[in-house]
Backbone:
């Protein structure tokens, strides 16, 4: 459990013990102030958000009536349960069967998605061989999509784009869509993530693009360590202690 400053109780206890041990016999107002102010320092927490391919498919089963005959080529996600401001860090694309099918990642702000900035996972703009997210069985996928070339007149990544690419493989259900979030807010082990998905829909052999399909899914949240600010504070404390010890040594030599 974390304190209001954002540090865990164990972290604060360890830091106080280390600084107190070094402070023995040192009369330094700077050190005393450092120890006094330590719990009140604002702390930015970094968390890894992970969403599995299978959980996305489960969510799309609810929100997309065409899910059973769709191949999703883009997913835009945003943490919706945060009450404080946040920023994004590294975004990790899901694994694909072939290197040529690697998905592209980034951030995107567009009124069609809703307010704020979203993390983007999508097929690359000019890919000629494409892996897609699909809940179909391998047999049905091979019949409906595998080997099918596709393009549309929409602007990538909110559409397939004008570059023709052949749908070749499915993303494994065990794949994970990952992104880092930094915020002063303390988060639990899960968080609600919302967004939009974009797909190619097989309508009885006629293919069309479906856009802005809503998604609501639960992400697994993992706190990242070590805490950079913790080491920064410890470094500052050591510097203050070193100065205090030097002052003490000089006073001894003068006395």
Residues:
């Amino acid at each position: 459990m974390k304190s209001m400053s954002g540090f865990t109780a164990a972290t604060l206890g360890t830091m106080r013990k280390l600084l107190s041990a070094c402070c023995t016999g040192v009369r330094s107002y700077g050190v005393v102030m450092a120890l006094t102010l330590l719990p009140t320092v604002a702390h930015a927490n970094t968390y890894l958000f992970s969403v599995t391919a299978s959980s996305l498919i489960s969510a799309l089963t609810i929100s997309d009536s065409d899910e059973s005959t769709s191949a999703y080529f883009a997913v835009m996600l945003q943490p919706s349960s945060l009450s404080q401001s946040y920023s994004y860090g590294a975004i990790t694309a899901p694994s694909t069967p072939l290197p040529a099918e690697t998905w592209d990642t980034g951030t995107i702000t567009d009124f069609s998605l809703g307010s704020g900035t979203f993390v983007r996972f999508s097929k690359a703009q000019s890919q000629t061989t494409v892996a897609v997210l699909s809940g179909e069985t391998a047999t049905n996928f091979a019949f409906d999509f595998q080997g099918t070339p596709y393009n549309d007149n929409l602007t990538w990544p909110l559409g397939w784009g004008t570059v023709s690419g052949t749908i070749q493989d499915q993303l494994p259900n065990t794949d994970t869509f990952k992104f880092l979030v930094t915020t002063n807010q303390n988060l639990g082990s899960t968080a609600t993530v919302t967004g939009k998905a974009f797909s190619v829909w097989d309508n009885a052999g006629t293919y069309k693009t479906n856009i802005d399909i809503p998604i609501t899914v639960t992400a697994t949240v993992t706190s990242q360590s070590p805490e950079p600010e913790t080491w920064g504070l410890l470094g500052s404390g050591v510097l203050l202690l070193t100065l205090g010890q030097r002052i003490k040594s000089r006073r001894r030599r003068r006395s």
